[in-house]
Amino acid sequence: MSISNAATKVEEFDLDTTAKDDGKSKKRPVKATKAKSTKGKPAAAEEAEVSSKSLDATQLYLGEIGFSPLLTAEEEVLFARRALRGDEAARKRMIESNLRLVVKISRRYSNRGLALLDLIEEGNLGLIRAVEKFDPERGFRFSTYATWWIRQTIERALMNQTRTIRLPIHVVKELNIYLRTARELSQKLDHEPTAEEIALKLDKPVEDVSKMLRLNERVSSVDTPIGGDGEKALLDIIPDINNSDPEVSTQDNDIKSSLVHWLDELNPKQKEVLARRFGLLGYEPSTLEEVGREINLTRERVRQIQVEGLRRLREVLIKQGLNMENLFSVEDE
C-alpha cells in the first residue's frame, strides 16, 4: 500500500468508498468515475463540489489505512531493529502500522488553515523521520516517540504555509504561547482579553505582547471577491487616499512642465543639484549628503550650489511676473 495520501486523485476522479461494517477487515470495492467538468457552474456550486471531492479522497485514504494491522510491543522492537539495519520491508511495515496515529494527531490541528489531508501528509513525513531515528533499545513504545516527530512536522507546516508573510519559527512559537493564553483568558473572562491582561498572565511587558499580537494580523488579497456574485473585488471598494482633486493634479502637472523649462536657465551644476534635491527630471528626492555622494562634492558645497540655484531660479520667475516662494520647501538637515 502506498504511504502517501490519495489527494492527487481528486483532480482526476470523483472517489467514493463505503465504510467498514462491524470492524471487519473486509475491503469494499472503490467506485471511480470520471469527474464532470465544472465549467459554467456557479461559484458556490463549484466550491461545494470541490469540498465533496476532498471529503471523498479523505474517506478513501482513511479506508485504505484502516486495514493496516497494529504492531505489538515485541513486533515493534523486531521491525525497528531490522529497519535500523536497512531492511526496507521492515521500515515500510513500521510506517504503515502507524498511519492511523498520524490521522489521530492531525485531527487535533483541524481548522488551523490547512486541509486534513495536507495535515496528514505533513504528519506522515514526521512518522517516516521517527521510524528512521527510533532506537528500540531505549525501552519505550514507538508511538510515544513518533508523536513528537509528527506534531513537530505538522506545527512547522502550519507556521510556514498558513501565513502570507513568513515569520521565523521561534517567533511563531512565542506568538502561539500568547494566542493560547488569550484563548484561555477569553473563556474565563467572557470577553476578548486585552494585551494588558495577557501580559499580566504571562508576566511579560505589555509592549512585547502588543507587538507579537500585531504579527497575527491576517493579510488579505485586494483581488478577493466580495458580494454574492463575486463580480466585485475588494480593490474596487478601497478608496484611493492619494487620488487628489483633478484640478489640483492638472495644476501640478503644469508646474512640473514649466519647471523643466525654468531649470534650463541655470548652469548645468545648479540644474543637476536642484533636480536631485527635489526629485525633478526623473530623479528621486535626495538629501544633501546623498547628492554629494552622487556628484562627488561635499555636503556643504552641495548646499551652496543649491542656494545659488534657488536664488537664480527666483530671479527668473520674478522676471516672468511669478511669485512662487513655496515652490521648493527646503528643510534643515
UniProtKB/TrEMBL annotation:
Location of the region described as Sigma-70 factor domain-2 in the Swiss-Prot/TrEMBL record? 94-164
State any GO CC term: cytoplasm
Segments carrying the region annotation (Sigma-70 factor domain-3) are 174-249
Q: Biological process GO terms, please? A: DNA-templated transcription initiation
Ranges annotated as DNA-binding: 288-307
Q: Where is this motif: Interaction with polymerase core subunit RpoC?
A: 118-121
Major location category of this protein: cytoplasm
Indicate where this protein resides in the cell.
Answer: Cytoplasm
| UniProt keyword terms in alphabetical order | Cytoplasm, DNA-binding, Sigma factor, Transcription, Transcription regulation
Cross-referenced Pfam families: Sigma70_r1_2, Sigma70_r2, Sigma70_r3, Sigma70_r4
Which parts of this chain are annotated as the region Sigma-70 factor domain-1? 56-89
Domain RNA polymerase sigma-70 stretches: 118-131, 287-313
Q: Which SUPFAM superfamilies match?
A: Sigma2 domain of RNA polymerase sigma factors, Sigma3 and sigma4 domains of RNA polymerase sigma factors
Renumbered residue ranges of the record's region Disordered: 14-49
Q: Which InterPro entries match?
A: RNA_pol_sigma-70_dom, RNA_pol_sigma70, RNA_pol_sigma70_r1_2, RNA_pol_sigma70_r2, RNA_pol_sigma70_r3, RNA_pol_sigma70_r4, RNA_pol_sigma_r2, RNA_pol_sigma_r3/r4-like
The record's listing under PANTHER family reads:
RNA POLYMERASE SIGMA FACTOR RPO (PTHR30603), RNA POLYMERASE SIGMA FACTOR RPOS (PTHR30603:SF67)
> What family does this chain come from, according to its entry?
Belongs to the sigma-70 factor family. RpoS subfamily.
Name of protein: RNA polymerase sigma factor RpoS
Write down the species. Answer: Vibrio amylolyticus
**Mind giving the lineage of the organism this protein is from?**
Bacteria, Pseudomonadati, Pseudomonadota, Gammaproteobacteria, Vibrionales
